[in-house]
Design brief:
- The chain has 14 helices and 22 strands.
- With 451 residues, the chain is of the alpha/beta class.
- The strands form four sheets. It has a seven-stranded mixed beta sheet.
- α14 links the parallel β20 and β21.
- α4 runs antiparallel to α8, α6 packs across α7 and α10 packs parallel to α11.
């Protein structure tokens, strides 16, 4: 039995893990490489495994760094089953075609501006490729066994985002566990991740293996910021990821209005993708903590904006309100038009509810930039900017150790993936010290023999 680390090794993106045994090839996750150019360029290299030779792909969740390379594999000849949980199937049906459209738009823009090294520039994949990949999805319920060859697989709840799972693989009395991305112990919307099932080997994420998240009550911290912002009677802008983060923001605002006496003001969700994702939360009401009433009430506090004209009207009206809009790091999307309209007014507030990657517009705002460049123009930053780093969907070091320490059996070895080199190595040391497990941090494209 061989295991190859074809992505998310030495970096946090591009998750792809190839398991070969008894003549079968199973790929666990099929993610895009994201981030700096040197990492992104890996997307354009020939796949490390011939997609046509794979027997199945097994997804842990819908985020593009775990699912976003599927259209390339389908284009290159993969036509087998793609297993996932039902919520993951619904989220992938939103995220993958959107990703294809973005790749097509990027190629058209490169051709107009003439900056591509290829003539003409081509998209990594198209919306049509993404839709073809969706036809291969085979949803499987949590805890329902399914087979690939003589291997039995089973999904268990991982927290993180709706539908996220870790995967146990068993064959001939041996077990391998892929953690996927591990969620928080006290997430506002999702149940804690289930502890690891019996496993001889565990492939485990290490994204935040070097840090401890802020332990403040997120609703209390959010209350202080929102009430101060509303006292100025301005506009509150919340750049937010469409999957998970936006729904958490709505729930927090609902709790503030219901429990904390925060003055009710109009709330708008201006992101078509967020609107679609919120429908998925309504559809899969047994896969998160909210009751049917809480779903209705929490998501019902907002008006969901659909048309471009409605979005323009939001920017033109400077009455007190809260706008939740994509993207989460203010790199693209409708949030940019709202920033142009409101960021130069001191009455307004920009709330950044999470980590802002270096080089993004959100990071510049968080760092106190005097101005931001949007659509070729510079806009003075007079609005108050607040960063609330309390809503991470990833377990921190202590939560990762707690999760691993609760395993049903002692693993022979733990492989740390989906982390930058320093966090992965720090977590390696902590696991060895606290739990006494053998831990290995594999290199990109490294293969290990588990037999």
């Amino acid at each position: 039995m061989k295991l190859s680390f074809l992505g998310a090794a030495g970096t946090v993106t591009g998750s792809k893990f190839l398991l070969e045994r008894s003549g079968k090839k199973i790929l666990f996750d099929c993610g895009l490489f994201q981030g700096i150019k040197k990492i992104r360029e890996r997307n354009w290299r020939p796949p490390a495994v011939d997609p046509a030779t794979l027997d199945a792909v097994v997804l842990t969740h819908a985020h593009l760094d775990h699912s976003g390379f599927l259209p390339v594999f389908v284009r290159e000849g993969f036509d087998g089953p793609i297993y996932c949980t039902p919520p993951t199937a619904d989220l992938a049906a939103i995220l993958l075609p959107d990703s294809g459209r973005i790749h097509e738009e990027d190629a058209r823009y490169a051709n107009r501006k003439g900056y591509s090294s290829h003539e003409p520039a081509e998209p990594l994949y198209t919306e049509a490729h993404a839709k073809r990949a969706l036809e291969l999805l085979q949803p499987v319920q949590f805890d329902q066994p399914f087979t690939v060859g003589d291997a039995e697989l089973r999904y268990r709840h991982a927290g993180h985002i709706l539908g996220a799972a870790n995967v146990q693989v068993g064959a001939e009395g041996r077990h391998l566990l892929f953690s996927g991305d591990i969620g928080r112990q006290n997430d506002l919307l999702l149940a804690p991740p289930e502890p690891p099932a019996k496993a001889d080997w565990i492939v485990m994420e290490s994204t935040y293996g070097d840090r401890i998240h802020d332990r403040r009550d997120p609703i209390e911290a959010f209350e202080v910021i929102i009430e101060r912002a509303l006292r100025k009677r301005g506009v509150v802008l919340i750049p937010s990821f469409a999957v998970g983060r936006a729904q958490t923001m709505l729930y927090c605002l609902y709790r503030l209005f219901r429990d904390r006496g925060t003055p009710k003001v109009p709330v708008f969700v201006d992101s078509p993708m967020t609107t679609d994702v919120t429908r998925v939360y309504r559809r899969h009401k047994y896969d998160h903590k909210l009751s049917s009433k809480e779903i209705k009430d929490a998501f019902g506090i907002a008006q969901f904006v659909s048309s471009v004209n409605e979005s323009k009207n939001l920017s033109a009206n400077h009455d007190t309100k809260i706008i939740i809009s994509a993207s989460g790091m203010a790199t693209a999307g409708r949030i940019l038009h709202h920033l142009k309209a409101f960021v130069s007014d001191a009455r307004n507030t920009v709330v950044l509810p999470g980590f802002q990657a270096p080089g993004t517009r959100g990071a510049a705002l968080a760092a106190g930039a005097d101005s931001v460049k949007i659509h070729g123009r510079h806009f003075a930053v007079e609005a108050e900017v607040e960063q609330v780093d309390l809503f991470s969907a990833h377990a921190d070091q202590e939560e990762l150790l707690t999760w691993l320490g609760a395993a049903e059996s002692r693993p022979r070895q733990v492989f740390l993936v989906h982390g930058e080199p320093l966090p992965a190595d720090i977590l390696r040391q902590r696991i060895e010290e606290r739990l006494g497990h053998r831990v290995y941090v594999p290199d990109y494209r490294e293969t290990v023999d588990l037999s």
